[in-house]
Amino acid sequence: MYTSGTTGEPKGVLISNESIITLLAGVKRLFESVNEKLFEKDVYLSYLPLAHSFDRVIEETFIWHGASIGFWRGDVKLLIEDLGELKPTIFCAVPRVLDRVYSGLTETCAGTFVSLPNELEMLGTVGPPVPNVDSCLESVPEMGYDALASTPRGEICIKGDTLFSGYYKREDLTKEVPVDGWFHTGDIGEWQPNGSMKIIDRKKNIFKLSQGEYVAVENLENIFSQVPSIESIWVYGNSFEAFLVAVVTPSKQALEHWAEENGISMDFNSLCEDSRAKSYILEELSKIGKEKKLKGFEFIKAVHLDPVPFDMERDLITPTYKKKRPQLLKYYQ
């Protein structure tokens, strides 16, 4: 299976049958430990691409238990109707579908941690690790994360038979991972008192500005995405500049409402080119930045408004709606 290509060209990941069976067995054991299991009457709605390891593992779990799988019609606008028709008992999602759900890495066979049913105190976490997978945190000093602190935080590392065998026809990349048998995920996690893991940051998407400050860009995008007038945002910076810039797809309804209130009469595309609209969006970004107590260098200093959302047609996002940062840079530079 291939990675999504968010950090460059998609890589072919060699996943053995043993990896898949090990993961399925681990999930089964975890659910049994809390008296939960799948039944034949359970129904799963499959709408993710079949080339996505997350969906494939879930489907194989359902097949193992003799449960049912229904497939959507391939149109996002009809997804609600598909839900009503199939009435799934289990519904799985990835970012953009449910912003608060984190998907798994292809290299770890899509799953290492599993949220437990009906455990409300685990909301906002990815749950505890499955029984047959080893996991640990490694400190990331440059980001201020200490795996040995009273609240352990650091890069999540995985070890076990669920790991991939290597990258297809890329021995150079295969030699880089794992390190001492541990696969470094690039996710920054925080152990919770109840044994679950909370993902709080992303190591792979950090960079240094010219003044030497490190920026965790995904964390900033998650914060700025909370602005009601913003549909989507891509934040960019590099080591040659001292500030951040962003490409924003504004909410059409919110921007047109703002324009009407301010006596500005023009269509949505024209609004996105208007300097007053850009100033308005920058003000909204600054407001939430102050609310969240961001550092000065984490504020956006310039913004470009694109009326067209990031899409697969321009190769800016993956089929599961994750940003392809190298392609975004090439397109907007």
Automatic annotation (TrEMBL):
Location of the AMP-dependent synthetase/ligase domain: 1-101, 104-168
GO annotations of cellular component type: endoplasmic reticulum; membrane
Molecular functions (GO terms): long-chain fatty acid-CoA ligase activity
InterPro entries recorded: AMP-dep_synth/lig_dom, ANL_N_sf
Source superkingdom: Eukaryota
PANTHER family cross-referenced by the UniProt entry: LONG CHAIN ACYL-COA SYNTHETASE 4, LONG-CHAIN-FATTY-ACID--COA LIGASE
Protein name (Swiss-Prot/TrEMBL): AMP-dependent synthetase/ligase domain-containing protein
Gene source species: Trifolium subterraneum (Subterranean clover)
